[in-house]
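ESCALATION

Customer reports they have been waiting on this structure for their group meeting. Please prioritize. Original submission:
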Amino acid sequence: MDWGQALKIGGPATVAAFVFYKLISTYLIESKLIETNLIVNIVLLVFVFLFCLFLAWLLIPRKVKGDDSSKKDVVNNEIEENCSNSDINIGKQTGAVRGNKIKNNKSGGDINIG
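Update from on-call: job pushed to the front of the queue and completed.
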């Protein structure tokens, strides 16, 4: 395993998952307790399940509550006679784009509205 690439892609969770895998696999191979005790088997399965849930909880992105309030609407503006050598973007990261007058704009690239 190339640890440099693994850490770039997975971060510290890669190390945690690898250590967890090595500890559990070594314990399962060398221990006779697992073969004879049902309660230890159930506890081990619950622990593995909770560990997987914890890693999933860390990896799933959560929405920040203030994201929608930072978006502003572009409403009732006059966007006229602009000249650009590249793209013209109107309301690219905003909420609503409505009621605007967009005329006589010259662009060397694309004109993106909304």
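Sent to customer with the following note: The longest helix spans residues 38-59.
Escalation resolved.
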